[in-house]
Design goal:
Elements (H helix, E strand, L loop, with lengths): L11 H11 L4 E5 L5 E5 H16 L8 E5 L4 H13 L2 E4 L6 H11 L3 E4 L4 H7 L8 E4 L5 H6 L4 E2 H6 L15 E6 L9 E5 H12 L11 E4 L6 H4 L1 H8 L2 E4 L6 H11 L3 E4 L1 H14 L8 E4 L6 H11 L2 E7 L6 E4 L11 H8 L9 E6 L16 E7 L20 E9 L5 E6 L4 E3 L2 E3 L1 H9 L4 E11 L3 E10 L7 H9 L10 E4 L13 H8 L2 H4 L1
Bound molecules: adenosine monophosphate.
Pfam family, one: AMP-binding
GO biological process, one term: fatty acid metabolic process
Organism: Acinetobacter gandensis
């Protein structure tokens, strides 16, 4: 016997309908590419998304056609997302910091028929245009600009297109399993691969990330996703924001610490999300400006391990709880988030810090396990100590990559993340490394993340990466590549002495190299592959 309850498909359009109806006057504040600010509301975002849906309907596209966006976090980008997915097309967000060859590969691989882009990315779009095979419409997410039109006659302008349409549009009742959006993995090895999300996976993920033990967002929040909309859909926050009806602050291209401090203070942001490098910039800028970031009650750190020193600074200097979260493109992304259980509440500050260092536990809807081999099926004990290969399954986890028929899963249906980790009996996850970043010294594994975290706790170090350098005797040894804080005096022996009482002797890096900059990926992660290419043989040369 089936239950007698109504069936409504889980659709992205229902989230914007909800925000437009029940949170119509809640603000969406957006920094434009020319740094002016636009203040709009969920009501107007909903109306404009329907206008843009009418624009797309006039293009004669087919169900599930891909529409690319190359844009920062701003209100036009947000409106277009809802129009695209709500109408039954696939919203393909593209990272503008990719190499042009990768951009061309991705657009052709996805067979995008339309490209929407911020004006700042016009040179990029023009440069790759001759090599794009499927694109028929180019839309600049801005008001009409005659100078651009003369140079690029087929270009259309978003503001003009929506002004010509009315806001009457009935969102189609799609199958909830239909594709809704597409993100490519960063492709640090080989070509990037597409991850194709569905309406159902997106709605369920939005519920999960909003829950108190995840990001804990509600209609009383003012949320600022600093993580770009092209990085796993800004971790799903633009969807969750519509679902709960919170105020949304979109920082546009202003990702530097000073701009973020200003946005947080001016708009009283209560929760913000980003990668550790972004937070480091914010901390420095807020300290310089003498801001206490008073409205910020919590910030979410993910994308790379959160250095312990950062958790402490946020808590002690800014009164801000840091939620450490883990995920990846293939997992929508939330796989775990760190919130205390009742039994942790009475712990001392130091003990609480230890709990907070973990990447947290999975929300209902995903399941984690650690196996003793990559793509293996043999689970190891959940004792918080036994490391192995982290695998995941659940409602918003990949099944197969875009355009590929073969499964991306193990023989028993789990996705192997490529991360090395432990799980404890409560499911608290601790990532020790990417499997390819682990250092194998004389047969023993050394975690680059542990050594980096320690270095980041040194008062004179601004940023640190630990990589494996080839060694004639031990195969690999750790070396530390560090950026000093401005105007400090720091020697390599000072750092090595600092490590001496914190890790086993054989884990202390063999060498310290000071640099002015560490290469970062388009999503703000340290490019260790590039560092290995540059410094990987320094121990062989000496
Ligand atoms: P991406 O798909 O580009 O977001 O990259 C996902 C990868 O980032 C994961 O497989 C992890 O290696 C890493 N990552 C994400 N969040 C964390 C975290 N909180 N701590 C450590 N590594 C993380």
């Amino acid at each position: 016997m089936l239950g007698n309850m109504m069936f409504k498909p889980l659709l992205i359009s229902s989230m914007i309908e909800h925000a437009g109806r029940y949170h119509a006057d809640s603000l969406v504040i957006s920094k434009n590419t020319d740094t002016t600010i636009t203040e709009t509301t969920w009501g107007k975002v909903h109306e404009n998304s329907k206008r843009f849906a009418n624009v797309l309907a006039s293009f004669g596209l087919n169900f599930s056609d891909r529409i690319a966006t190359i844009a920062w976090n701003n209100h036009r980008h947000l409106e277009s997302w809802y129009a695209i997915s709500g109408s039954g097309y696939v919203c393909h967000t593209i990272n503008p910091r990719l190499f042009p060859e990768q951009l061309i590969f991705i657009i052709n691989d996805a067979s995008d028929r339309v490209i929407l882009f911020d004006k700042t990315f016009l040179p990029l779009v023009k440069a790759v245009k001759p090599l794009l095979k499927s694109v028929e419409h180019y839309i600049c997410l801005d008001a009409v600009d005659e100078a651009i039109s003369q140079d690029f006659p087929e270009i259309k302008f978003y503001d003009e297109l929506i002004a010509q349409q009315n806001a009457n549009f009935d969102w189609p009742e799609l199958d909830e399993l239909s594709a809704s959006s597409l993100c490519y993995t960063s492709g640090t090895t080989g070509n990037p691969k597409g991850v194709l999300y569905s309406h159902r996976s997106t709605v369920l993920h939005s519920y999960a990330i909003s829950m108190p033990d995840s990001l804990n967002v509600s209609a009383r929040d003012i949320m600022m996703p600093v993580v770009p909309m092209f990085h796993v859909n800004a971790w799903g926050t633009p969807y969750a924001a519509a679902m709960v009806g919170c105020t949304l602050v979109l920082p546009g291209p202003g990702l530097d610490g000073a701009s973020l401090t200003q946005m947080i203070d001016q708009y009283q942001v209560s929760v913000a999300l980003g990668v550790p490098t972004i937070w480091q910039g914010l901390i420095n800028a807020a300290q310089q400006a003498g801001s206490k970031l008073e409205s910020l009650t919590r910030n979410v750190v993910g994308g790379s391990a959160c250095p312990p020193a950062m958790l402490k600074v946020f808590k002690e200097q800014f009164g801000c709880e840091t939620i450490h979260a883990w995920g990846m493109t293939e997992t929508s992304p939330l796989g775990s988030a760190n919130q205390f259980k009742a039994k942790h509440q009475h712990l001392s500050d130091e003990e609480k810090l230890q709990v907070r260092l973990s990447q947290g536990r999975p929300p209902f809807g995903v399941d984690l396990r650690i196996t003793d081999e990559e793509n293996g099926t043999n689970e190891v004990t959940r004792d918080g100590e036994t490391t192995g290969n982290l695998q995941i399954q659940g409602h918003w986890i990949i099944n197969n990559y875009f355009g590929k028929t073969e499964s991306a899963l193990t023989s028993d249906g789990w996705f192997d993340t490529g991360d090395i980790a432990t799980l404890n009996e409560d499911g608290f996850l601790k990532i020790s490394d990417r499997s390819k970043d682990l250092i194998k010294s004389g047969g023993e594994w050394i975690s680059s993340v542990d050594l980096e975290n320690l270095a980041m706790g040194h008062p004179k170090i601004a940023m640190a990466a630990v990589i494996a350098a080839t060694h004639p005797k031990w195969d690999e040894r750790p070396i530390l590549i560090a950026i000093k804080k401005p105007d400090v005096d720091l020697s390599d022996t000072e750092i090595l002495d600092y490590y001496a009482d914190k890790v086993a002797k054989w884990q202390v890096p063999d060498k310290v190299i000071f640099v002015d900059a560490i290469p970062l990926s388009g999503t703000g992660k340290m490019l260790k592959k590039d560092l290995r290419e540059q410094f990987g043989s320094v121990l062989m040369d000496s």
